[in-house]
Amino acid sequence: MPQYRMKNICLIVVSAFLLSACMGQKAAEPVVSQRVQVEAPIEALGQDEILSKIGRLPAQELGDNECGLFLWLRREDVPLVFFQHSDGRAYMAVDGTVHLLERTMAEEPVGLQYYRKQVFAASDLTVSVAVAPEAAPSLPKGLKVPNGTISLEVDGGWAAALPVAGLIGCK
Predict the structure, then answer these.
(1) Which has the closest alpha carbon to 146: 10, 17, 19?
(2) pTM for the whole thing?
(3) How far apart are CA 29 and CA 12, in angstroms?
(4) For residue 120, what are the contacts with CB-CB under 8 A and spacing of at least 6?
(5) Average of pLDDT values for 56-65?
(6) Strand 97-111 vs strand 114-122: parallel, antiparallel, or unpaired?
(7) In this structure, which of 2, 24, 129, 161 has its CB flanked by the most CB atoms within 10 Å?
(8) pLDDT value at residue 95
(9) Which of helix, strand or coil describes residue 10?
(10) How far, CA to CA in Å, does 124 sit from each of 56, 121, 150, 156?
């Protein structure tokens, strides 16, 4: 089990450093609710009732002096499922659309505009994010987030909880 956990952490760290190199080729333009870096159609994470609704976010690139919270689904292919800029804007792909999420609640500050517990909303979608970052800086210009959960709820529809891991990194 520790070897599997180390593999996931290594994949997350490598993914963070390769974000700008991972941009895919341009394809058909997907539906986007607000401006976000989207280069290809939104890819669903699976075929089941829940994962068919959640999409893989494209790689996100940070500008100079900008920070971001990157959360990847805890599974072998580690798809990026949540991204939050240091100004509080957050994005998640649900039902084929990348949603700009507005923060409605935040508790237990970590630093900048990041919190251990946050709730976001977009139209009929509510996204709760709970993360447990390492206490001390564990990356150059950042913190590892070895554990977290994203809970989603759609008004009058389905709900799900996803295990995630990630990092808060700055450029």
Answers:
(1) 10
(2) 0.75
(3) 27
(4) 90, 92, 101, 102, 103, 104, 126, 127, 128, 129
(5) 88
(6) antiparallel
(7) 129
(8) 84
(9) helix
(10) 20, 7, 16, 9
